[in-house]
Each structure stands twice: as C-alpha cells, then as structure tokens.
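Entry:
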Amino acid sequence: MIKSHRNWYAVIALCMAITTTASADIVTQFSFENDLLDTAGLGASADHLTATPLSGALNTTYEAGIVGQAIRISADPGAATVLSAPSSADLNLAPSYTIEAFVKPDFANTGEWDRFVTKWFDGGNQYHWSFRFANNGQDLFMNGGPVINGTGTGTVPLNLWSHVAMTGDPVNGTRLWQDGVVVGSAGYVAPTAGGDTFRIGNRAPTDVPLQFSGLVDELLIHNTSQDETYMLARAGLIAPPPPPGADPPPATGLLSYFSFDQNTNDEASLYANNVGVSNDNLAPRGGGVNIVPGLNGGALSIGVGGTDATDLAANHSPDISLPSQYTIEAWINPSDLTGPWQRIALQWGAGGTAYHFAIRDLGGRQTVSLFHGEAGGGQPNANGGNVVLNEWQHIAGVADGSFLIVYLNGEEVNRVPYDGTIANITEGLGLGDSFSSLSGIKFNGLIDDLAFWGVPLTPEQIRYHYQQGGQGLGLTIPSPSAGIISLAMLSTIAMRRRRAAN
C-alpha cells in the first residue's frame, strides 16, 4: 500500500471541525464569493477590498476555488491586478498572528518578486510576503528588513493549488508554511503598527515585472498563531491530482535500476526501458547485504542493524557518469535523521563532483537535496520538502537542462537554475556515502527501487511513479530475450511481474 503524505479523508473531516472552532480568532476574511468583502465580522473593522486593473475597464472575475469561489488576479486587460484596503488595526496584525490563503499561481514573472500580500510601501514597511527567485519560494520581509529568504523555502508550484501561511508568536518565532509543513523559520519579529495600505497582488498595477498572477481563495488573518494541526487540516482541503491512466512518456532512458528484491545487482538490462551499457552491481562496505521487507518485495537495509552494510559502491562506468540531463529516484524509509546530511546516491568525491543526492538538514527541516557539479566547477543545488522518520517516501532529483528540480512524494518542492552542463569525472557510484571519500554523514534506513535515468522525467511521470510505488516503478516488463538467460534473471523477472500484477 502506498503511504501518502496526507490522509485525505481524515484531514478533510478534521478541517471542517477546525474551521468551525477556530472562527473566533479570524479578524479578517476574504472568501471571494463573487465579492471583495471582509466577512469575518469579529474584527475591529470591515476591511473591504477595492480592485484596480492595469488597463481597460475593470471586470473582476471569479472561478471555482477550494472553498466556493476564488478571485483571479493578473495584469490582463480589465482583470483585478491589485486588491487594496486602507490600513486598520486588524491588518496591522496582533502580537500573535496568522495570514493564510489558498493560491494557484499561473505565471512566474520576470522580476525578482511575485508580490502576494504586503503592507509595506507608504507608511511603515510592516510586512512584504511574496513568492521569490527562480524556485518561486515564499519570502518574507517585516519591519523594513528581511526575515526568511525564499531560496530555501521550496517551490510554490504553478497551476496547482497550494495552501500557504505566515505565522508569528514569541514562543515559536516566525514561520512560513506550505501544505501543512513549515518551509522556513526565523526568530520572532513583533508586528509594528503603521499606515501602509494593505495590498494583494502588487504595489501598483504598473509594476508588471513584480506582479502575482493566478487564483486566490480564502485569505484569512487570525489574531493567533495557528499550529501544525490546523495547517494540515486546511491543506487537506486540496484534493490530490488524479493519477495518470498510464505511465507517461518518456518510456526509455533507464541507465541503472536496483529493485533490492534479492540482491544489490543492477537489473536495468531486464527492462525494455533500458539504454544502459554496463551492469553497475553494488558491493557492500562496512558490513553485509541485508534484504528486508520493503515497500513491496525486498528493500536494502543500510546502517540499521549491526550486520548491515554502512554503504555500498560500484566502480565507474559510462552509466554512472550521468548525462547533463538526468533523473535519480528512489523510495526511502530513514531510521535516523540526525546530522547535517544523509547521503543517498552520489558520484562525488576524490575523483570529482558530478551529482550528490541526499537528505540535507536546513534549519531543522530534512530536505530532499540535489547538488550538481557543472563542467565549469559551479555546484548549484536544489533543496526542499521535509523528509520524516520511519515512513516510506518517494524522492526524486531531476536535471532538465535548465533547472535542478527535487520532488517529495510526487510533488515538486524546489528548483534552481543550472547552466545545462555536468562535470565529466571518473569517480565511482556511492550508495549511502561517497565512493572514494568516506564520511560520517551516511544514510541510515531502508531503500527500495533506486533508478538512474539518462533523461529528465516529467512531473507527470514522477507523480505516476510515486502513485504506483506499491507496485514498483511502473517500468515496462519485457519478455525474456532469445538465448540463454540465467535462473537468477528468470526469478527476478517473475518477481517483478508479480509486483506489477498486484
């Protein structure tokens, strides 16, 4: 059974209860039910919004949202480009506060910021909450200065609904949330009162390069700092995207594949997807090969028991030296997340630096991390999501020629640009640690269905592999080729067919 990062039905039921009981702390509520009214009723003032277009006669449009209707904000002629309300006590924020909304961005603009919610420009520079940088991560300034930088807060994806929130209180500090998970944190910054106009979408319609574009629903301001239970419940209202009916293209490009059902051999050659030219079998170091029950079939145990291998290695080959566009994916079940890194799969050591796929601690968040060695020596890296202990999770790192993209449980969690090149090195493959530069930052836990592709898998295919995870990767199972095939290969093919049929 696939373990989702959300139990949707339970969360939705919880959300209904929380939405009802938490209403007493909502001081501003923009539901956008075909109007721009503040319907909270409990705040000190009614902070109704006014829409301003960039050009043409105003024609505010509403579309289906998460709870009823949502408003479309854009720079299109006649569209609501900026929503604004005069300063008020409710909009100045209480000492403990929450601002939250459902967003569905549809365009990543050419400026540094996509301004989302601000009270910044004409009175006191109170707060400036935006989606920033190439990764479209949440970014927060308060009281005239930076608080949380958007480069480390994951990715708010385009054309998908996300729940985002900013909270602050003296105990928990300042936090940014996405879909129920803290994606950025800093020390507490007490809100200051000021005369700034409250705005959604931009400072002014003419600031086109800094415009937020997309749908917004249920923008709420609370006079309390909400917790994880509440955030998960709100995020649970977003239905997961439906699985594709079949494995989307590309259908080829597999270089190395380790099912870990019986051993640590490279089984890519058994699959029609394969284009690899070598068998990159992994040899254990610091212990033996222990195959244990996995997500479905077997999984490799690394550093869990006293007889487990501490790491594994395969000598350099053309398949291990990935092309400049590639995908690495696996199912993992970590048993330990202490320390700055949990190395998973890497060609990174004394023989050079090409790729380093790992779990990385960033401010207490255990992010999916992909470091990439460019031909010129640069090492751009994408880090996002929040990996948890003792649960099966699907992770993927993709280099698509323009961006490094990391995924957790089928969803993109960050992206950063790279120059489209990769270092050509002779380093071998390390699993759990470096091939040549052993360290104390090893992966500890279970790993299943590790695959290396010489092509960048699409978001749809990553999601499909996640959703099909309980049955393997959804790889095409070929018929045995003509000629002699070993008993071990026949056994492996039979097992993979059973997994695909379950």
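The helical segments are 8-21, 228-235, 459-467, 487-501.
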